[in-house]
Design a protein that fits this description.
The protein is mostly beta strands. Helix content is about 5%, strand content about 40%. It is built from three helices and 24 strands. The strands form five sheets. Strands 3, 13, 14, 16, 17, 18, 19, 22 and 24 form a nine-stranded mixed sheet that branches. About 0% of the residues have low confidence.
Length: about 325
């Protein structure tokens, strides 16, 4: 058996799930982040599930070897994959009798994984690895039902979300809700965005309905130079991945805790639930990020956040980010 490498400072390792788990609320430079072998998925990986004390939003980083593939499977949880580097394709289908539908992807793309659709991922580059950042609501479902089999061995088919439609992977249309129905987005850095004055000053944003997902909410946000969002405290666990430019994010709570986090392209930030935050650009260029939320609390409450009388747990962190600058990946 291959000896497991030493765990970097500020992280822990889950033997059962084969995950390296960074702590804090921000992870730097995901393209070069430490990864550990994950044999059950034929990959090297890290999971940011525990950032900011999160319990419902899963965030996984997974690297496939050159020319490699992952085992095909189904899961009822909602999921989407952002490609950090490399290129390849995924094969998907809903019905066991339907032909496979191929979805090609490359760095800068995001693809949805429809709930419980059969899927398998392939690295089409024989010489270089690929790296994907996955967003899922698996942890919430497993906590709610107390069963791994409910997620991975469930016979139910969500044909209302994906029914092997011929145009499923190419459509891109505006919905009455104001979201864009698109199950694959190519080149997120160049996706045209609409002005979003309600979100903040000099802000632009699109919201997307991906994979028919009901709880995971996807947005692309861009702020012009000197742009800033309004102060907000969403009733949702969220993750922000820097697509371009540089940011400053202030977080604070009613107990007087306050921190400033500088982050940017290639970094992942997960502000804690129940904590105020505000984002601004820094530098002389616009800045853009991918924004993912698990909105199940808002949905369960009918989006009437003002009717919440139970205090939200204060998750203000003791540590903003780990220091593993001296860590050397033995691989």
């Amino acid at each position: 058996m291959t000896e497991r490498p030493p765990v970097p400072p500020g992280m822990r390792y889950d033997e059962r799930r084969q995950w390296l788990l960074p702590q804090g609320i921000v992870a730097r430079d995901l393209a070069n982040h430490p990864l550990f072998p994950r044999p059950k998925r034929n990959s090297r990986a890290a999971a940011f599930d525990e950032l900011a004390g999160n319990t419902t939003l899963g965030i996984h980083l997974s690297q496939m070897a050159p020319g490699g593939t992952k085992p095909g499977h189904r899961h009822v949880d909602e999921a989407a994959l952002y490609v950090i580097y490399g290129y390849g394709y995924s094969e998907m289908r809903q019905s066991d009798d339907a032909p496979m539908q191929r979805v090609d992807w490359k760095a800068g793309d995001i693809i949805s994984i429809p709930s419980n659709a059969w899927h398998q991922h392939f690295n089409a580059d024989p010489d270089n690895p690929t790296l994907q950042l996955a967003f899922k609501n698996t942890r919430w479902l497993r906590t709610l039902f107390g069963s791994r089999d409910f997620v991975y061995e469930n016979d139910f088919r969500f044909v209302d979300r994906y029914d092997d439609e011929a145009d499923y992977w190419t459509r891109h249309k505006m919905l009455e809700s104001g979201k864009i129905d698109a199950n694959v987005l190519h080149d997120l850095e160049r996706e045209p965005l609409a002005p979003a004055p309600d979100y903040g000053e000099l802000c632009h944003m699109n919201r997307y309905q991906m994979g028919g997902h009901y709880m995971l909410d996807f947005s692309i946000v861009e702020m012009e130079r000197r742009g800033r969002t309004r102060a907000h405290k969403p009733l949702a666990e969220e993750a922000l991945y820097g697509l371009s430019g540089r940011f400053r994010t202030w977080i604070w709570d009613e107990d007087g805790n306050e921190d400033l986090i500088e982050w940017g392209e290639g970094d992942l930030l997960s502000p804690p639930l129940g904590v105020w935050r505000r984002h601004t650009t820094r530098g002389h260029e616009p800045a853009r990020f991918l924004h993912v939320r698990n909105n199940f609390l808002n949905i369960a409450l009918g989006n009437k956040v003002d009717q919440v009388h139970t205090p939200i747990p204060n998750r203000y962190p003791e540590m903003i980010e780990p220091d593993y600058s001296d860590y050397v990946d033995p691989s």
